[in-house]
From TrEMBL:
Keyword Methyltransferase among record annotations: yes
Superkingdom, taxonomy of origin: Eukaryota
Species: Cnephaeus nilssonii
Alphabetized Gene3D superfamilies for the sequence: 3.30.1330.30, 3.40.1280.10
Gene Ontology cellular component list: cytoplasm
Full protein name: RNA 2-O ribose methyltransferase substrate binding domain-containing protein
Keywords: Methyltransferase, rRNA processing, Transferase
All copies of domain RNA 2-O ribose methyltransferase substrate binding, residue ranges: 124-195
Residue segments, region Disordered: 44-92
Biological classification of the source: Eukaryota, Metazoa, Chordata, Craniata, Vertebrata
Molecular function as annotated in GO: RNA binding; RNA methyltransferase activity
Length: 420
């Protein structure tokens, strides 16, 4: 009984202390949470306010701020990378050539042959700059062969719709390329028509009443250089007669450096059709292909003056009977056009002028001399020191064209000064 009375109101103590694991491991437990709440409530009743990260504010504060406070915009997420075989945003797709694919070789066989090129009306353009110039001028592309997708993406997308795009190995392009360092992209275009082309506005604005006629130019490098000089001098048109190398041959295109898409070029003309492309009252001048002392020679042989070569004379049947007599005696020929010789730096641009440049091997044709005579033109002589046979045809063309440009600009300046 005493034991029971004594036990009333006595609180027995625990034999072992109780450890509050929540208090000890609370922070570790919070760090283990995958989600990060704004407030953490511990079992002991303690409330821990978690600081918002940089650039963020608590939900309560954001709600109290009102709708007029704009939250910082999150940076837009970039779309996932496109698959290498399609551009979904433009609808462009390309094919990948596998071993044994003959599309590149079959096309190159066509565009590298002039007869096939003229029959099918296709040309080859190589290099990103030349292709971009062609697209800008309105040339119509048919097929592109490329080794890296980046080369194709450098071109305007709207010009590539409906074009056959074929990815090939760089070794295949290198095998067919004419460049020392291939650029990894080739374009097959429809043969451009000068009437449908869109030439640069600056080129048209600086165009001069000066034309160039190429006669018997057989060297691709010379023709390409001449076309480049014609574009630089501001020629309004370039005419190529039959007997010249094709203006759209790959070597001519490479030497032209984009001149084909800066000045109108009319290719493969008969001499009967040349006057149709000349403005009214045009005077035709021929570049003299002889040295300084040729004008003092007494011989009337055409080959002595560098006008036309003996091979061309032999092809003219009506002159064969006169050759034995007249060429040996040096007698004057009534059939040979008589053109006055004039120094190239004297005024010869009083009317629209056309300059005829002949090839170094075959020289000028008889038709060019007859056209010059009928229009009141002359021979333009570029004097050289004794012992020098003649100038390169591309060099002679550059000298004459830029001299014509100088004369025309000088006249325009005088006219503007008189008006003011």
């Amino acid at each position: 009984m005493a034991v029971l009375v004594k036990g009333v109101g006595w609180a027995p103590r625990p034999l072992l202390p109780v450890v509050q694991t929540w208090d000890l491991d609370a922070r570790r437990w919070v760090r283990a949470l995958r989600r990060s709440p704004v407030k953490v409530l511990f079992p002991s009743g303690q409330v821990l306010d978690r600081k918002p990260g940089p650039g963020k504010q608590p939900r309560k504060a954001a709600a109290e701020a009102g709708p007029h406070v704009q939250r910082p915009k999150q940076p837009p997420q970039e779309p996932p990378a496109q698959t290498p075989s399609t551009w979904e945003e433009s609808g462009l797709r390309y094919d990948k050539a596998f071993p044994g694919d003959k599309r590149l070789s079959s096309v190159m066989t066509v565009v590298k042959s002039r007869p096939f090129r003229e029959k099918q009306g296709k040309i080859l353009l190589e290099g990103r700059r030349l292709i971009a110039d062609a697209l800008k001028a309105g040339a119509v592309p048919k097929t592109f062969f490329f080794s890296r997708l980046e080369y194709l993406k450098e071109l305007p997308v709207d010009k590539l719709k409906g074009v056959s795009l074929i990815k090939v190995k760089f070794e295949d392009i290198k095998e067919w390329s004419d460049l020392v360092t291939p650029q990894g992209i080739m374009g097959i275009f429809a043969k451009p028509d000068h009437v449908k082309m869109t030439f640069p506005a600056t080129q048209l604005r600086h165009s001069l009443p000066l034309l160039l006629i190429c006669d018997n130019l057989r060297d691709p490098g010379n023709l390409g250089t001449i076309l480049r000089s014609a574009a630089g001098a501001g020629c309004s048109k370039v005419l190529l007669t039959k007997g010249c190398v094709d203006a759209w041959e790959p070597k001519v295109l490479r030497a032209g450096m984009g001149a084909h898409f800066q000045v109108p070029i009319i290719n493969n003309l008969d001499w009967e059709a040349v006057p149709k492309y000349l403005p009214n009252d045009t005077r035709v001048y021929v570049a003299d292909n002889c040295g300084f002392y040729a004008q003092t020679q007494k011989s009337n042989k055409a080959s002595d003056h560098g006008w036309i070569c003996d091979q061309q004379l032999s092809k003219l049947h009506k002159y064969e009977e006169e050759e034995d007599e007249d060429l040996e005696t040096g007698a004057s020929k009534d059939w040979l056009p008589k053109l006055e010789v004039q120094s190239y730096d004297l005024d010869w641009t009083e009317a629209p002028a056309a300059v005829v440049i002949g090839g170094e091997t075959h020289g000028l044709s008889l038709e060019s001399l007859q056209l010059a005579e009928s229009t009141g033109g002359k021979r333009l002589l570029i004097p050289v020191v004794p012992g020098v046979d003649s100038l390169n045809s591309a060099m002679a063309a550059s000298i004459l064209l830029f001299e014509g440009r100088r004369q025309l600009r000088l006249k325009a300046a005088h006219l503007s000064r008189d008006r003011s």
